[in-house]
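Q: May I have one protein plus its fold?
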Amino acid sequence: MLNKSPLVLLLFPLLLAGCHHHQPTPRTAASATEVDDLFASLPSSKPSSRATYARQIMTAIRAKMPDSVEYPGQTCRIRLSLQRDGTVNSATVEKGDEELCNTVVAAFMQADIPAAPDDDAYQTFKNTSIDFKA
């Protein structure tokens, strides 16, 4: 004879209900538009021209610097003045460790910094401070 556990008898209807196939409600164009409107004010995942240009500047500087392992824990803030075409007008030390700062200034003066991609990026970086941390 079968041993009918009360727990199995109680769970059996739940198991059957879980197997029921539910048809999803189709999304309408109106609901998709409403969702799009919710996210319209959020910033784009596409990097801004300023962020892209900042990476290009840092890449150009790092290419002219020796390994930063030589300057463990040192920091430096440089005031950078650029022309629209990427030419460095000046790179001056604002504060930081002298050894690292001298290396960073020399790297700025030798770097091949590309032209700013647009006026927004140029206005941001034509006269700015950049922090370095070894």
The CA atoms of residues 27 and 98 lie 63 Å apart.
